[in-house]
Each structure stands twice: as C-alpha cells, then as structure tokens.
Design brief:
By secondary structure, this protein is α+β, with helices and mostly antiparallel strands. It contains 10 helices and 23 strands. Helix 3 packs antiparallel against helix 4 and helix 7 crosses helix 8.
Length: 502
C-alpha cells in the first residue's frame, strides 16, 4: 500500500506510544540499559497539516480543570492540572495555550515539587522543570491563569475555533485547534485523557459538559461550582462546555442515559429529532458495534452560527443548525464511533471521520425511510461533486467538470484553510458507498465493526485504513477506496448509472 508524502459544515511525533493502532513487534526487545540523553519535548505532535498542534515527549493521563467565569466580562480565573507520563528524558516540554495570562506553573513528581520557569512562544506554553524528568516518570503540571478567552484565529476552516462568549452564553466549538484557547493542553487527537471539569458561576446559571455531572456545590458569595467528569479519554477539541440557562429532558432509552439540554426560553425548531437518539444508537450499534461511551445526549445552544460538533458523549448543536433535523442528529451521533472512539492520527485524514458520519446519516435514512432515500443521497452527492448539477443549471459540461474539480479536491488531500470542504463529507461517504456496493452488506458491515474494534482507543490514518481494507476485503476493494479518496476527478458509479459530465 502506497505511503503518501506529506459540505456540509454541520458538524467535528505521536504523543503516546499507544496512540497508533498499528501492531508493534516486541519480539526483539531493546537492551535494558538506557542511554541517558535529556532533551526538550517537541513543540508539535507531527501533524502534516497543523504542525504546531499538540506536543511531543509526554503522554497526558488526565486533566483537572477548575475555572471561575465572570459572565458579565467573560474573564476567567483558572487552575489547570495536567497529569502526564514522560516518554523521553525531558529537560523542557510544551503545552498548547493561546492568549490568556499565565500566573504560575508548578511541576511535581513523586520526588519533588517546584514552581518553575516558563515562557510563551506564539501558541506554546514552554515549561522548564526544575530537574530532568526521566522517561517513564509520572509528573503533574499545575497552571494558574487568568484573562478573557477568545476563539483561536481560523487556520483550517471558515470559522474561529474554541471559546465563544456573550453575557448570556458561553459555548465551545474547538475543532480542530481551539481547545488551546481556553485551557492548556496537548491539543491533538493522538493524545486523549479523562477530564474532570469544574466551572464556578453565580447562582442561576447552568453548566453543561460531557460524561456525568457529579456535583453542584455552593461556594462563597452566591457562587456555585458545577463538576463534570468525563471518565473515558477524550481529545481536547472534543471537550464540551456551555454556560447559560438551560432546561433538560431525559430521552427514551434503556441501555444508557440520554439527556438533551436546550435553552430554557427556547421557542425555536422542534426537539422531535432528539427523541430518536436511542433508536439511532441502537441502529448504529447493529452496524458499527457497541456504543463506545457511558452516556449520550445533545447540547443545544442559541446561536445564529450554523454548525454542530461531535463533542464527546453530548454533541453540541446551534439552534441555527437544526433545520437539518434527523440527518444532523444521526451524523453527530455516528461521530461518537468515528472520530471520538476511533481518533485521527493526522488532521488531513479527516475524511475518515466525516465520510463515515455522512454515510451513517444516509444509512439512517435508508433504515427509516427506505432504500430510495439512501439512493437519493448518493445521486445528490455525486451530482454535486462531479459537476452534473452545474450541467443541469446550463453550464457547459467541460466547464462544469473543471469547476467541480477545483471546488472539491480529493478528500485525502484537503487544502490548508479548507479542512471542512464538502469533499471530505460527500466524497468520503461515496467512497464507503462504493466499497459497500463492491463487497455486499454482510462483508461491508463486518469490516466496519472490525475497523471500529481495531481503531478504538487509537489514532488512525488513511494508509492504515487502506491496509486494513486490503487485509480484510482484498486488494481490489482497497484500490476502490484509494481511487475514491485520491483521484483528481470523482470516479463514476456505472452500476448506479452515475457518470461525470461528458
């Protein structure tokens, strides 16, 4: 399998030795005598598209975030405690943090604890521990910081990522690199860890996050601390948070708790699609395997920003996005398997997240409304991406193909600044449709369940995925997928009567 060198916007060196699902041969172990060679941890996780994202030299094992928010000004006073394991002999290491004012950094191991020197370099918090932290040593970093968080300037898509504040509402949309705008982190999906999030606000405000709400405690001067615990490891960009005034309801379902949170004065679109979450989860379990987390639900925030994001266990939806109804809810729920349980190793392989989630929403329509609904989505997607839709609108066939090829690059080669191009959704989904058509339902869904089992807890790439397709379904099947995700022009689907114009 070759090695690569280097639209729906609805939403979503490796840091850990276990972050890649590739098998490792441990038959020939290295000598037990270790050469002591202290070094700084890398300032990036080795991402091809976002080289500054994440960091190297350590693996985060847990976050504890304690944030007090002044809703009138948007200012925070915060303490972030990051537990980690050193992977090399560290003389220095970085955390991702944009803006905000760091007041103090303390590093501790089982042997020592010191307030340490630190510096800021662009989006990096550079920490100089008092002593070398040896490889294999567990250590903790406590960062006290203040300021007014703000979204991180757009780098990969059409919006600024991260913290959004008004005096009436805080919510976060952190994909791909916005978590660094509100807490210090190893901000890359290859390094996931449990998160305990405590947010202190005045009485009358609600705080919603993922996992489970473990406590709401009165502190002083009319303030209340709301503590949520995400026990399953989560990538920083997938940590949900909203502060506002919300109502909630329990959705029907027996296997797991499903809670929908929505604005308390909401008079917008219907909540009906969210009543289907348990049925969607049950259906997806039959196709993809067991739901991967302890809870599920939805967080709806009142915003004109038309987007949703697959924040872990509780996807975040804006009220403006809900015109997409069931398709949107199915898409974000499917991400709990594809993108959350099975994480990306490289951001430019995002089609693995969005292609599977897009096909999942089509599968839901097939399940609920029949095969014609599924086929209609396939025809619509191919028509858009091939240029056939433009021909229907009167554009010359050759010009239509040229425009489509320029607008929709191959999904395995997204452009910097255009990470969420329609191609990674629609053509990524069509690649999986083509694979299903080739091998049949039984083999296809057996393969998808294998992919989820093999990839859960790890970080995957297109190269690894194609190797798995070849191993499980054969060389021709792997070539089919490879062509769909890499060819300059969208392939035809002749068995479905779908061809590029001309």
């Amino acid at each position: 399998m070759r090695r690569r060198l280097a639209f729906l916007l609805v939403l979503a060196a490796c840091a850990s030795p276990t972050s890649d699902v590739m098998d490792v041969d441990t038959t020939h172990a290295a000598p037990t005598t270790r050469v002591f060679s202290p070094q700084p941890g890398a300032s990036g996780a080795g991402d091809r598209m976002l080289p500054y994202a994440g960091n190297g030299g350590y693996d985060v094992t847990g976050y504890r975030l304690d944030i007090q928010v002044d809703m009138d000004s948007g200012a925070v006073v915060a303490l972030a405690e990051v537990d980690a394991l050193a992977l090399v002999d560290l003389t220095q290491f970085n955390l991702d943090l944009v803006g905000l004012t760091v007041e103090e950094v303390t590093v501790s191991t089982a042997e020592w604890e010191e307030s340490v020197r630190f510096s800021r370099e662009r989006r990096e918090l550079v920490v100089d521990p008092a002593e070398v932290i040896g490889a294999g040593t567990e250590f903790a970093v406590a960062i006290r910081y203040t300021g007014v968080p703000s979204p991180v300037a757009r780098t990969a898509g059409p919006f600024d990522a991260g913290w959004n504040w008004t005096p009436d509402l805080v919510f976060v949309f952190s994909e791909p690199d916005g978590a660094a705008g509100w807490f210090p982190s190893n901000d890359h999906p290859t390094d996931r860890a449990p998160v305990e999030l405590s947010v202190t606000v005045p009485g009358g405000w609600d705080v919603v996050s993922g996992g489970s709400l473990v406590a709401v405690e009165a502190v002083d001067q009319g303030l209340f601390r709301h503590t949520w615990h995400m026990r399953d490891p989560v990538a920083p960009y997938l940590v949900p948070l909203a502060i506002g005034r919300f109502d909630s309801r329990q959705e029907p379902g027996d296997s797991i708790s499903i809670t929908t949170w929505f604005p308390d004065d909401w008079e917008g679109a219907t909540l009906e699609p969210f009543a289907l979450q348990a049925e969607m989860i049950s259906f997806f379990e039959s196709r993809f395997g067991e739901y991967p987390f302890e809870s599920a639900g939805a967080l709806i925030v009142d915003s004109d920003f038309r987007a949703a994001l697959e924040t872990q266990t509780i996807p975040t939806y804006t009220t403006a996005s809900l015109l997409l109804g069931e398709q949107l809810v199915a898409h974000e729920l499917a991400h709990q398997w594809f993108g959350n349980a099975v994480a990306l190793g490289q951001w430019d392989d995002i089609w693995l997240n969005e292609g599977f989630a897009t096909m999942a929403q089509w599968l839901w329509q097939e399940h609920r409304y029949g095969v014609d609904a599924y086929d209609g989505q396939v025809v619509n997607a191919h028509s858009i991406l091939s240029g056939a839709r433009l021909v229907e609108e009167g554009v010359d066939a050759e010009e239509a193909v040229r425009r489509a090829a320029n607008a929709f690059p191959p999904p395995d080669f997204p452009r910097l600044g255009d990470l969420f191009n329609a191609s990674v959704y629609l053509r990524g989904g069509l690649a999986l449709v083509a694979l299903r058509d080739r091998v049949g339902d039984d083999r296809f869904f057996d393969f998808v369940r294998t992919y989820v089992r093999a990839g859960s807890g790890g970080a995957v790439t297109t190269e690894w995925f194609l190797d798995l397709v070849e191993a499980e379904l054969g060389t021709d099947a792997a070539k089919t997928v490879s062509t769909w995700v890499t060819a300059p022009r969208i392939p035809d689907l002749p068995e479905r009567g779908l061809f590029s114009p001309g």
